[in-house]
Specification:
single chain; alpha+beta; DNA polymerase, domain 1; Dna Ligase, domain 1; five-stranded mixed β-sheet; four-stranded antiparallel β-sheet; 12 strands; 42% helix; disordered C terminus; DNA-directed DNA polymerase; DNA/RNA_pol_sf; magnesium; DNA replication; DNA_pol_Y-fam_lit_finger_sf
């Protein structure tokens, strides 16, 4: 049996934990965009990533608090410590959720349901946060169970009852079914997972394409052979920032992008990873998203090298930004090499930029990330909009 443990409204729950005055009240975390909403706010229809203005219209009595990423990172570390005390086989999914393999613990720890109940109690006791756990025989179904069991619940799907639990659920519960795919399915009167299961694989492939059709056919029959894995290295390292709904100058966006590149390359060097592909992610006022990528001839972890490519990609998208407005900008480096493998050039001397990056890293590691910042970020704030996993 596999556990999927997922903290409830993580950012908002941390705020309510740390400020008793917020408990039981609708809480919104964010600036121009809602990064997290408490369940009291969600009851009014508030969702992420909704604009703060829209959220206030739906829930005028909501309390808005700025994000405190340090507090969320500390809470995440404490929760993952509970996970690792529960089982050595933990697969992180994000800052606030993970899969746990408990199949081999029956003799010493009891059933999966008993383990899940103790885990929830320990997270509440040691960290002070609510968490929902889904228990099932596959990773897919465990995640679905935790979603159905929210908030602050425990839902077990017993062996032999998987399809009875899964088939009545709406098609959106299948991984990979977003609004567009759901609309295509509903146009053909396919409303539930059971309906998908009754459609032949060939028909789903004709309807949605080869990959999506086969994927949904397998999930609708609860075919998910993946096991919980540990120690997998990340395929990319990135960061992003919500900008809010107000118009910003292109210079403002460039400054934020540079600060994000600082953060990403610092983490690359800390993880001893060098990357070949730089990707810039943008979200516009209408919530449409685009990405722009460029691959380098050799892997790098230099701030300057990554920044030059990222700014070029951003400038290529400037006409769209000027026309449509921008609510989020992000940057990621992928195609990572292990152990900081970087091809040297003749003569074999470290570039001066490496020495500058190392000096900046030492200052920030000793005195904190805010001890050094770019001049163009003075007076500006940088609020990450989604949690990021710690680097392995």
């Amino acid at each position: 049996m596999i556990l999927h443990a997922d903290l409830d409204s993580f950012y908002a729950s941390v705020e309510q934990r740390d400020d008793p005055a917020l408990r039981g009240r609708p809480v919104l975390v964010g600036g121009g965009v809602v990064l997290a909403a408490s369940y009291e706010a969600k009851a009014f229809g508030v969702r992420t990533p909704m604009s703060l203005g829209r959220a206030r219209a739906l829930c005028p009595q909501a309390v808005v608090v700025p994000p405190r990423m340090g507090a969320y990172a500390a809470a995440s570390e404490a929760v993952f410590a509970v996970f690792r005390d529960t089982t050595p086989i933990v697969e992180p999914i994000s800052i606030d959720e993970a899969f746990l393999e408990v199949d081999g613990l029956r003799r010493i720890s009891g059933t999966a349901e008993q383990i899940a109940a103790r885990l929830r109690a320990e997270v509440r006791r040691r960290v002070g946060l609510p968490i929902t756990v889904g228990v099932a025989a596959t990773k897919f179904l465990a995640k679905v169970a935790s979603g159905v069991g929210k908030p602050d619940g425990l839902l077990v799907v017993p062996p032999g009852q998987e399809l009875a639990f899964l088939h009545p659920l709406p098609v959106e519960k299948l991984w990979g079914v977003g609004p567009k795919t759901a609309a295509k399915l509903r146009e053909r009167q396919i409303h539930t997972v059971g309906h998908v299961a009754r459609v032949g694989e060939a028909a789903l492939v004709a309807m949605l394409g080869a990959h999506a059709g086969r994927h949904l056919h397998a999930l609708a029959h609860n075919h998910d052979p993946r096991r919980v894995t540990t120690g997998a290295r990340r395929s990319s390292i990135g960061a992003q920032c919500a900008l809010g709904r107000g118009r910003r100058s292109f210079a403002d966006v460039e400054a934020v992008l540079a600060a994000l590149v600082d953060r990403v390359t610092h983490r690359l060097r800390g993880a001893k990873r060098a990357g070949r592909t730089v990707t810039v992610r943008l979200r516009f006022d209408d919530f449409a998203r685009v990405t722009r990528s460029r691959s380098l001839l050799k892997a790098t972890m230099q701030t300057g090298a990554v920044l030059r490519v990222a700014v070029d990609l951003l400038r290529e998208a400037q006409p769209m930004i000027d026309q449509r407005g921008l609510t989020l900008v992000g940057v990621a480096v992928s195609n990572l090499d292990g152990e900081g493998s970087v091809q040297l050039e003749l003569p074999f001397e470290p570039p001066r930029a490496d020495g500058l990056d190392a000096a900046v890293d030492r200052v920030r590691d000793r005195f904190g990330a805010a001890s050094l910042q770019r001049a163009d970020m003075i007076g500006r704030t940088l609020h990450p909009s989604v949690p990021l996993l710690p680097d392995p």
